[in-house]
Backbone:
């Protein structure tokens, strides 16, 4: 499905929030590095999807009613085989039903588990004055507690992405601390610029969160994504 | 760009007519205001007419030698610029006359519109806005002081200098800041080319004026005071475009109202308005300031310092205490104070007086250069720093304020000092800032500052002010350099 079709489909269901599967699909279409996720409706589909996405696999519940998936047992990591995936599917459905009996379960999202990397966040929200504004920060405590983020107005130029990545106080973390290899800054800058282009091309996107993006010594990939459309 | 006036180039041409008028009309000037507007226009190079219907006022106006008409429509010439000071209920009638007369632009000094937050005021503002928009009339304000053109002597304060050209444009939502910038700035070496106070900005808004000054060949640096903007996106786009052509200084007053944002977005919850404003200004490549003083200092550094992107300072102070404090000030502003090259140390060691002085950098040089008044050694120091590959820019404390009385007794000393610094500045490729502290003989220190700036040397009242102004210019030129 194209971006327009995905958005149209969501709207026809009365939704402005795209699911993780949908969000990743449209970002993937735009050439942005995401860990693609596939929606599985039963254990068999989940196993096939994992075969397609690659092992080790991650399964996450897809439900409009569940805000924090891991709190209700809706996430399983590091699944190495089709058998593991099938069992995990059933476990997740059972766990979510037990924890939140009235939650609607649309299925389970299956994706390849990305190796550990430095967590960063790339986001966009609309400012009443300046329109779409992009945000960049390190994941977790850096953003949530320290508010260590950088903003830029869309569209960004290469120098803006360059400055944005270096402007945060925690930049040293990306340069590599405690013997870690430095993160691939060019890949992060490229991802930021691609998101800026995507937003420019799709004014109907109201909000976007890539959280986290995992930054590696060679490359960067968004492992979770959410998009809100108007 | 305001879309009412056809192609942007047409609006620019029409603004150029208003900013460079040949005929000015003042409507509604009165004795109670000391005929402020007609007195402001006394310096104007072109024709000035008055429009006033009150016989009690007309006699006073004619006594000033100004030709008065009872209606704008009766003025014989084409009118390029109108200042209107009538009471607010009369404003719509004058707007209609301006439309009929096809004037270049009208500045409404008249206030009592939306800024009163009353129903009457808001309705009246809507009325004149609609009239001007429908007719394509360039309306400046209302609730503003309008245009100042120094060269032509079109003024909005009788204290403003006139008759000679300037190179700094200023735009301001506030009339006070607009006047103060031109007056205090003039005292400190800022020569305005054109300024405009635009008040409620109902037809023409900040981006229109910025674009005009960006295209104005006379204007080399643009500064502004803004409190907010109706269309942040347009404001940002124009700033970003303009800052690539000439330096732009933005003094922001007030706090941007936070827009409504989606509540459950991670990003939105963090996107506080001041942080976004700051990011937008940085991205646009403009210099940000927070006060009149900082704005004047930044404009002076951008105007008078050679453009530079290097942050390594060579510092000259007169005494030990000041050499410590000047170093702190420049380091705190994010600049560096490195060691000099060994070649420099070799040259310095041949003549530097180390009794009560030192020369590692900062140079504690009062003893060596006679507190600034031994021009030979001063020139040697400046040449060494100029040639030093570790130094990108130079800052110097000019004289020790506690010996200022000596200068009053022997003015030739000051002449020599000014001459030495001016000839250094002319030869040098590195940014140079002078600091002349306020002192107990303040008239002498003020005189030093005035004489240095008159010779094109950026001079500041404190180490902090000099360091911050230089830092801002370096940031500006770096942003220009980093575009690609």
Residues:
């Amino acid at each position: 499905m194209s971006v327009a079709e995905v958005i149209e489909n969501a709207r026809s269901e009365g939704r402005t929030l795209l699911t993780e599967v949908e969000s990743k699909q449209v970002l993937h279409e735009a050439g942005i590095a995401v860990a693609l996720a596939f929606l599985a409706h039963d254990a068999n589909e989940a196993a096939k999807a994992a075969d397609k996405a690659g092992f080790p696999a991650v399964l996450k519940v897809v439900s409009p009613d569940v805000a924090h998936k891991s709190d209700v047992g809706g996430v399983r990591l590091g699944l190495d085989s089709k058998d593991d995936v099938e069992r995990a599917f059933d476990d997740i459905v059972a766990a979510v039903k037990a924890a939140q009996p009235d939650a609607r379960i649309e299925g389970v999202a299956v994706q390849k588990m990305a190796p550990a990397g430095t967590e960063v966040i790339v986001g966009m929200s609309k400012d009443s004055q300046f329109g779409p504004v992009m945000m960049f920060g390190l994941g977790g405590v850096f953003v949530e507690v320290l508010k260590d983020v950088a903003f830029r107005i869309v569209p960004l130029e290469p120098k803006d992405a360059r400055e944005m990545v270096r402007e945060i106080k925690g930049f040293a973390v990306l340069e590599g601390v405690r013997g870690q290899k430095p993160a691939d800054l060019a890949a992060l800058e490229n991802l930021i610029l691609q998101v800026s282009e995507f937003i420019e091309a799709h004014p109907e996107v109201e909000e976007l969160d890539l959280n986290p993006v995992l930054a590696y010594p060679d490359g960067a990939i968004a492992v979770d994504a959410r998009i809100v459309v108007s | 760009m305001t879309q009412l006036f056809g192609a942007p180039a047409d609006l620019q041409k029409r603004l150029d007519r208003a900013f460079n008028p040949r005929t000015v009309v003042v409507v509604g000037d009165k004795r109670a205001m000391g005929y402020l507007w007609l007195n402001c226009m006394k310096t104007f190079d072109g024709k000035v007419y008055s429009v006033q219907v009150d016989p009690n006022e007309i006699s006073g106006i004619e006594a000033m030698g100004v030709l008065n008409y009872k209606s704008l429509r009766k003025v014989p010439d084409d009118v390029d610029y109108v200042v209107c000071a009538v009471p607010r209920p009369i404003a719509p009638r004058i707007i209609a006359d301006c439309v009929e007369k096809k004037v270049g632009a009208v500045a409404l000094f008249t206030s009592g519109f939306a800024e009163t937050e009353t129903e009457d005021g808001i309705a009246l503002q809507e009325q004149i806005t609609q009239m001007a928009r429908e007719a394509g009339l360039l309306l400046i304000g209302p609730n503003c002081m309008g245009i100042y053109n120094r060269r032509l002597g079109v003024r909005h304060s009788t204290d403003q200098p006139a008759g000679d050209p300037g190179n700094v444009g200023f735009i301001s939502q506030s009339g006070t800041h607009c006047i103060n910038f031109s007056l205090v700035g003039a005292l400190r070496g800022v020569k305005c080319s054109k300024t405009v106070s635009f008040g409620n900005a109902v037809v023409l808004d900040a981006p229109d004026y910025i674009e005009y000054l960006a295209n104005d060949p006379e204007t080399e640096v643009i500064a502004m005071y803004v409190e907010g903007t109706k269309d942040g996106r347009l404001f940002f786009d124009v700033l970003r475009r303009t800052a690539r052509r000439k330096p732009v200084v933005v003094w922001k007053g007030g706090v941007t109202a936070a827009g409504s944002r989606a509540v459950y977005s991670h990003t939105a919850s963090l996107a506080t308005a001041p942080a976004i404003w700051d990011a937008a200004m940085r991205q646009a490549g403009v210099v940000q300031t927070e006060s009149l003083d900082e704005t004047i200092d930044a404009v002076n550094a951008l105007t008078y310092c050679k453009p530079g992107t290097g942050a390594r300072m060579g510092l000259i102070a007169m005494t030990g205490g000041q050499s410590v404090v000047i170093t702190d000030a420049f380091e705190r502003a994010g600049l560096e104070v490195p060691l000099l090259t060994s070649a420099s140390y070799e040259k310095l060691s041949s003549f530097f007086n180390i009794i009560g002085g030192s020369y590692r950098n900062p140079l504690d040089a009062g003893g060596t250069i006679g507190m600034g008044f031994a021009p030979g050694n001063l020139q040697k120091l400046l040449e060494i720093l100029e040639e030093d590959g570790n130094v990108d820019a130079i800052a110097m404390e000019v004289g020790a304020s506690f010996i200022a009385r000596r200068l009053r007794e022997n003015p030739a000393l000051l002449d020599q000092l000014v001459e030495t610094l001016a000839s250094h500045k002319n030869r040098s490729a590195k940014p140079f800032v002078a600091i002349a502290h306020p002192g107990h003989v303040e008239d002498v220190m003020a005189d030093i500052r005035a004489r240095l700036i008159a010779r094109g040397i950026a001079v500041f009242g404190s180490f902090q002010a000099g360091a911050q102004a230089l830092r801002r210019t370096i940031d500006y030129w770096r942003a220009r350099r980093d575009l690609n």
Observations:
- DSSP finds eight helices and ten strands in chain A.
- The first strand of chain A starts at residue 37 and ends at 40.
- Residues 82-99 of chain A form the longest helix (18 residues).
